[in-house]
Amino acid sequence: QVQLVESGGGLVQPGGSLRLSCAASGHPGMTAMGWFRQTPGKEREQVASISWTGDQVLYADSVKGRCTISRDNANHTMTLKMNVLRPEDTAIYYCAVYYGPTVFGHVSLWGQGTQVIVSS
């Protein structure tokens, strides 16, 4: 069974940086991994994703230039580095695993979520 372990969430001051990591175990065989975020009453939105083969990446417009996503194939781990954080970045962040022929076409597995709070 595939398990996702998320880490790196917490309280950060505006303008600060934070790193989120997600490790997948159980031979997930995923097409890609990514991070989504959600606030109460709003739909979940994609933040950043990376393919597991090749170097395809996908960033939301709101984080382009502030975020860098990377992967560690050997450890099945994905990391998102976020810089110049803003209060509007506050949300629950969910690790996501994509499956299927299209790299970023379908998310089939979600993490439990980790809270990110950007506040002074």
Task: Name the descriptors.
single chain; 120 residues; mainly beta; 4-stranded antiparallel β-sheet; 11 strands; 0% helix
Q: Report on the biggest sheet.
A: 7 strands, mixed
- SSE string: EEEEEEEEEEE
How many DSSP H or I helices?
0
Q: Level of helix content?
A: under 10%
Poorly predicted tracts of residues = none
**What structural class results from the helix and strand content?**
mainly beta
Shape: globular
Radius of gyration: 13 Å
C-alpha termini separation = 40 Å
Number of strands: 11
Mean pLDDT equals 95
Task: Give the strand content.
Answer: over 45%
Concise synopsis of the structure shown:
This protein is an all-beta fold and 120 residues long. The chain has strands at 3-7, 10-12, 18-25, 32-38, 45-51, 57-59, 67-72, 77-82, 91-98, 107-110, 114-118.
Care to describe what's here?
- It is a single chain.
- 32% of the residues are buried.
- Helices cover 0% and strands 52% of the residues.
- Strand 9 and strand 10 (107-110) form a beta hairpin.
- The strands form two sheets. Strands 2, 4, 5, 6, 9, 10 and 11 form a seven-stranded mixed β-sheet that branches. A four-stranded antiparallel β-sheet has the order 1-3-8-7, with no helix packed on it.
- The chain is mainly beta and 120 residues long.
- It has strands at residues 3-7, 10-12, 18-25, 32-38, 45-51, 57-59, 67-72, 77-82, 91-98, 107-110, 114-118.
- The model has no long low-confidence stretch (mean pLDDT 95).
Compile the SSE list and pairings:
Blueprint: E1 3-7, E2 10-12, E3 18-25, E4 32-38, E5 45-51, E6 57-59, E7 67-72, E8 77-82, E9 91-98, E10 107-110, E11 114-118
Parallel strand pairs: 2-11
Antiparallel strand pairs: 1-3, 3-8, 4-5, 4-9, 5-6, 7-8, 9-10, 9-11
